[in-house]
Amino acid sequence: MKVLANDGISKSGILALEKGGFEVITTKVAQEQVANYINENNVSVILVRSATKVRKDIIDACPGIKIIGRGGVGMDNIDVDYAKSKGIHVINTPASSSESVAELVFAHLLSGVRFLHDSNRNMPLEGDTKFDNLKKAYANGTELRGKTLGIVGIGRIGQATAKMALGLGMKVIAADSFIPQVDIKVEFFDGQSITTTVVPQSLESLFQEADFITLHVPAQNGYIVTEKEFATMKDGVGIVNCARGGVINEVDLINALDSGKVAFAGLDVFENEPTPATQLLMHPNISLTPHIGAATGEAQDRIGTELASQIISLLS
Q1: Which of 158, 163, 242, 244 is spaced 20 to 30 A from 219 at the CA atom?
Q2: What does the record list as coiled-coil region(s) (predicted)?
């Protein structure tokens, strides 16, 4: 059987699939040509990340598809229910990239509280002529330790983020409509661990209490954070979104940054990908990455081998 990994797959995933008797195709097929390519090459499994969309049109046009796989967590680029109604297996890898995303959250948080995103822009330009001015400009940093991190969505990635926050000495609060409470186990290099329980609270109270906010929710029909929510937050709050574009109203975010209500934002995802708004890209108080939350070698290895394991289990 043939597997089309249209958005790529790790070498370990390819090897595992080949060992299981599958032929893996890593040719990047344009979105409008995906259906034709699947049919012409008798592809049984299509694997995607966030770029390729597998909607009703492709599902209807490709009766030979047996599995649609998403390398990652969110499956908003796949018509999951429709695929299942046609007898197609839909799989993903919810646990494989949690730590990678959580680490990126803290890269943005640390960048924001110590102005790294802005100093890294200005030091190459003015570091040799205005060193003292820059030193003064970036001298009022903030420590994360002792501050309150509000996690919106305490699923796998939210829990991985909570572990790192606890390790840094932060207080963790959470809001989640589906999880009544969760035990967070922080494991250390020598085998020791500590466990603490987080009981989610209302979203409104989280916005009021948190010094920093990080979002870990799937794609929404509407915004979670708008002008109204920003108004309830602490002055000087920091906010990070490594989940999905469209969760934060970006126009309202710019206004909140300009007014000082929000001290900084960290964004890995955007409403208009792959062409984010220029106002976001040029803002001095936004730390930016191009949707790379799961893009570590370790995460991609885990994703590839987990997808391979599921495919082999289903089709062997």
Answers
A1: 163
A2: none
